[in-house]
Amino acid sequence: MNTDEELLTRVLDRAASRITTETLRPLAEPATAPPRLARVRRAIGNARLAPAAAAVAVVLVVAVVLVVTGRAQEGKPAGRGTNGTAVTGPAGAPEYYAEVEGDELNGPHPPGRVAVVVRSTATGAVVARIPAPVIAAAPKAIPFSVAAAPDDRTFYALYANWGKGPGDRWIYRFRMTSSGRATRPAAISGGLITGQDYLGNVGGFVVSPDGSRLALAVAGGHANSQQSGIAGEILVIDLRTGAHATWRGGMDRPGQLFGIQSLSWTSGGEALAYLGQWCPPRDLSYGSDGGFTCATMKDYQVSRPAGTDVVREIRATSRGGTLDSGPVLRAPVKSTDPQPVLVDPSGKDLITLRAAATSGVLNVVKVSIATGEVTSVLGSVPRMQPLFSANHLAVDRTGRYVLVWRGESVPSGLQLHGWVHGGAYHQLVPTLSPDGVTIQMTW
Amino acid sequence: MSFRGTATSQPGTSGPRNEADIVAQFRARHLELVRLAALLLGDFAAAEDVVQDVFARVWEGRDRLAAAGFSAAYFYRSVVNSCRSVHRRRGTLPAAGAAEAALLAEPGTSAEDVVLRADEDLRVLRALAALPRRQREALVLRYYQRLSEAEIAEAMRVSRGTVKSTTARGLAALGRRLRQEGL
Asked: Predicted confidence band at B168 (pLDDT cuts at 50, 70, 90)?
């Protein structure tokens, strides 16, 4: 062996030795085969109308018009193709989206069909249905949330033991293999979250842009959150070490509960933006998706929005801190029409929903943090009547493709359940009906 | 084959007897396979993905592999093939950045040692990363994996003669690059 060979051998051995069993992600066995698309389509075809249909019937008219025209125009939402499949997305959109779908979390019956499902963005076909993990302490484990990592193939799911009231939550990871199959969920280090009492966790479960950390809204030691069933703190888990860092407190207002409605990372992963909401306890209600809304209700209708929203940022250091430790991105405002807010990966804009000039339509817009002005319109979606559920958004890593949904049990044709890009709204295949909801989406 | 690593048996001489053996063999070689993929790709996260994908294929085809008289060489060949696919998807290999990622300081060494060693390692890995894909594979399989020419030929699916010439050309090219790097 000459000098070069000896040097190469030495360096290769040294470099390889940096990788140890402690740093390895456990191997996961593939999950079971996905159900055939035909079965899903049959189930969708059996959908029956739900009582909320009357409240949103106007949307059906819009949807029918758009199925005929086949393409979204400014201010008008697009529809599905006439064959019932989703409109094929343009190149550049994430290959998959994942969602927690099934029965209402806050419905009249215990949810029996709630599952994490991975679907093709192009066709809406079920790529994988992820089996619930076997958790000894959670024999009735059901998923509340799912979050996609930036590689488009790794996903994290949050599970709870249904029917046991306040308790623990478990986080599992699964991956889509190159052959298009999903691995079985595997527990992550640091993935046990104790003492939780919220029903769902919509919008508060996101992976950092480098895939190294997972942020979620949790209920913790904060005086408000323990009693309210809403998540009012932020937990960041280091996915390599399992270490936890928590942000709590600093947002108390007398006579108000404080909850976190949505979380999002800045592109460098150095900061987290959150939409927080103060709500009088009497005006708090829970949606079909487990999220909360803050509004005065009368005869099962919103008579008056009652909350106050604020958008703030926290620095995602390993030490944690208080929720008011970072800058305000959007000053507190009385919620006349509460909508989700995410930070754009650029860090310069917020992504939210705003009423369009056309009646019955919301625009997905980017708003400059510096000026508050709308910088672009990503697409337009049908505006639902505010009932018990809020709208939700999830943005991809480029900031160009935004999922929009509403966790409400309505007939499949009336579901707000799609994505926007380049000015167009692409309706996705409906969540399983009857009584089915999309609880959370991610890509 | 005489692969280095953590497996308890010599795969070429006494392969796994059933499906469970195959999965166990793979799990036993998990670390070694990720290290191999990381050296071929220069990217630890991608290496983990590659090995996970190969494991999924092995798991799904374990009954077929058992029936076909499986040899653990299949693992290495699959990892090499999957790394090639990653390269094809990327178009280019990340050069210095990936090497830097692998050069974390070892605990218990002085700061000076760490700096000197890291600098040397970085230059060598950078020179290796700049080689054509086949030459890089041949050198990693020879000087890290310690495979014979015949074993490298099987893993790379080329002839022994090709292995010999590729390795020789790779070493010569590496030497030139190391001189340029001042080593």
From this structure: very high
Instruction: Band the pLDDT of A49: cuts 50, 70, 90.
Output: very low
Contact flag B49-A175 (C-beta cutoff 8 Å): yes
Q: What length is written for chain A?
A: 443
Place of tokens 């942000």: A247
CA A162 – CA A266 distance, rounded (Å): 33
Give the residue, A334 or A85, on which the prediction is more confident: A334
- Indicate the average pLDDT of chain A: 77
Decide if B31 touches A, using CB distance below 8 A. yes
CB atoms within 10 A of CB B2: 12
Chain A residue closest in CA terms to B52: A27
**Nearest CB partner across the interface for B143, out of A9, A14, A153:** A9
Of B52, B85, B125, the CB nearest to A15: B125
Is it the case that residue B16 has pLDDT exceeding 60? no
Question: Which positions in chain B touch A151 (Cβ < 8 Å)?
Answer: 45, 49
Taking the mean position of all CA atoms in its chain, how far away is CA A160? 16
Cross-chain CB nearest to B175 (options A4, A9, A20): A4
Q: Tell me: ipTM over 0.95.
A: no
Domains and CATH numbers, chain A: 49-442 (2.120.10.30)
In CATH, what class is B19-180? mainly alpha
The half-sphere exposure of A391 on its side-chain side, counting CA atoms within 13 A, is 29
